[in-house]
């Protein structure tokens, strides 16, 4: 099989591990910078030009789309989908997961446990919004933030109101969440591939830090998830339609609470914490998708499914 890994950084740990895992299984993996892809739109002949050549012969892709380039990255993934190339993560699922508010609405509808969350576009409603999530202390998050950036812990109602009003004055969109004190600065990352939890770690924030992200200096250790935690991770992943996901959860008195579902989770932390070959699981899943595509090549083109954008949430 010939696989394409959509990544801007071929030397990143996640990218190199996927290339390595593919080679170990007898497959060819090429790294394609999605920002350097030109999309050709023509009736019945969608195409992608990369480095002056038309991309052909790709059996499946593995998107590694950064949050800052979601729009163009997803356009490239959609183009591959139009070309009948299988993708390990569908374009519309990436779009859903990247919008924090939209993804939480979907998760809530699916019955996924999560911290109480509030959103408003009107500063005069701030005191009531803080009370809706249980009062101070509260967590305030930028909707576009990643890797722990744009996340603030406001320990008093006055501080929360000041931060929220400041964000509103900057026209920044935010959500307010209850603070789960019993989590003690730690969370769980469950790595899901093809409807199965293939690895999990507990991430602990450094002393004095309420954010547990490894990019913020946190540490990761192997952990065995409870049945409820596995079920929450799988339900969240299924609700967003993701084939691959990193599900971040807090342990609370009322059970696991999902914070976020990442559609391009990094491999370095989870592999080094667990000692598991997560990259290999991703390659095996992607190859299976490609094999299914090959078995369906006799399907008439006239019966092709609609574009992902037309699929309802």
From TrEMBL:
<dbReference type="GO" id="GO:0005840">
    <property type="term" value="C:ribosome"/>
</dbReference>
<keyword id="KW-0687">Ribonucleoprotein</keyword>
<dbReference type="InterPro" id="IPR011761">
    <property type="entry name" value="ATP-grasp"/>
</dbReference>
<keyword id="KW-0464">Manganese</keyword>
<protein>
    <recommendedName>
        <fullName>Probable alpha-L-glutamate ligase</fullName>
    </recommendedName>
</protein>
<keyword id="KW-0648">Protein biosynthesis</keyword>
<dbReference type="GO" id="GO:0006412">
    <property type="term" value="P:translation"/>
</dbReference>
<dbReference type="GO" id="GO:0005737">
    <property type="term" value="C:cytoplasm"/>
</dbReference>
<dbReference type="InterPro" id="IPR013815">
    <property type="entry name" value="ATP_grasp_subdomain_1"/>
</dbReference>
<keyword id="KW-0547">Nucleotide-binding</keyword>
<comment type="similarity">
    <text>In the C-terminal section; belongs to the RimK family.</text>
</comment>
<dbReference type="GO" id="GO:0005524">
    <property type="term" value="F:ATP binding"/>
</dbReference>
<keyword id="KW-0479">Metal-binding</keyword>
<keyword id="KW-0067">ATP-binding</keyword>
<feature type="region of interest" description="Disordered">
    <location>
        <begin position="291"/>
        <end position="313"/>
    </location>
</feature>
<dbReference type="GO" id="GO:0046872">
    <property type="term" value="F:metal ion binding"/>
</dbReference>
<keyword id="KW-0436">Ligase</keyword>
<dbReference type="GO" id="GO:0009432">
    <property type="term" value="P:SOS response"/>
</dbReference>
<dbReference type="Pfam" id="PF18030">
    <property type="entry name" value="Rimk_N"/>
</dbReference>
<feature type="domain" description="ATP-grasp">
    <location>
        <begin position="104"/>
        <end position="287"/>
    </location>
</feature>
<dbReference type="InterPro" id="IPR013651">
    <property type="entry name" value="ATP-grasp_RimK-type"/>
</dbReference>
<dbReference type="InterPro" id="IPR004666">
    <property type="entry name" value="Rp_bS6_RimK/Lys_biosynth_LsyX"/>
</dbReference>
<dbReference type="InterPro" id="IPR041107">
    <property type="entry name" value="Rimk_N"/>
</dbReference>
<keyword id="KW-0460">Magnesium</keyword>
<dbReference type="Pfam" id="PF08443">
    <property type="entry name" value="RimK"/>
</dbReference>
<keyword id="KW-0689">Ribosomal protein</keyword>
<dbReference type="GO" id="GO:0018169">
    <property type="term" value="F:ribosomal S6-glutamic acid ligase activity"/>
</dbReference>
């Amino acid at each position: 099989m010939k696989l394409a890994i959509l990544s801007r950084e071929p030397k990143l740990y996640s990218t190199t591990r996927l290339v390595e895992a593919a080679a170990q299984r007898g497959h060819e993996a090429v790294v394609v910078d999605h920002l350097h892809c030109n999309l050709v739109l023509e009736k019945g002949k969608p195409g992608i030009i990369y480095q002056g050549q038309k991309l052909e012969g790709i059996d499946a892709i593995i998107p590694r789309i950064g949050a800052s380039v979601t729009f163009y990255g997803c356009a490239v993934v959609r183009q591959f989908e139009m070309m009948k190339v299988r993708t390990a993560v569908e374009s519309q699922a990436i779009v859903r997961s990247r919008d924090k508010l939209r993804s939480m609405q979907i998760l809530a509808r699916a019955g996924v446990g999560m911290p109480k969350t509030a959103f408003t576009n009107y500063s005069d409603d701030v005191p009531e919004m803080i009370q809706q999530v249980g009062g101070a202390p509260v967590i305030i998050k930028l909707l576009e933030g990643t890797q722990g950036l744009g996340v603030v812990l406001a320990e008093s109602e006055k501080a929360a109101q000041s931060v929220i009003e400041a964000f509103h004055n900057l026209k920044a969109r935010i959500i307010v969440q209850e603070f789960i004190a019993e989590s003690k600065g730690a969370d769980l990352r469950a790595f899901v591939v093809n409807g199965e939890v293939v690895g999990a770690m507990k991430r602990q924030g450094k002393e004095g830090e309420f954010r547990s992200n490894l990019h913020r200096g946190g540490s990761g250790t192997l952990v065995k998830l409870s049945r409820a935690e596995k079920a929450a991770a799988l339900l969240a992943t299924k609700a967003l339609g993701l084939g691959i996901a990193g599900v971040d959860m807090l342990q609370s008195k009322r059970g696991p609470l999902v914070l976020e579902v990442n559609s391009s989770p990094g491999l370095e932390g989870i592999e080094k914490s667990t000692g598991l070959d997560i990259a290999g699981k991703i390659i095996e899943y992607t190859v299976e998708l490609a094999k299914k595509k090959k078995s369906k090549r006799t399907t008439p083109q006239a019966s092709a499914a609609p574009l992902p954008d037309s699929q309802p949430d």
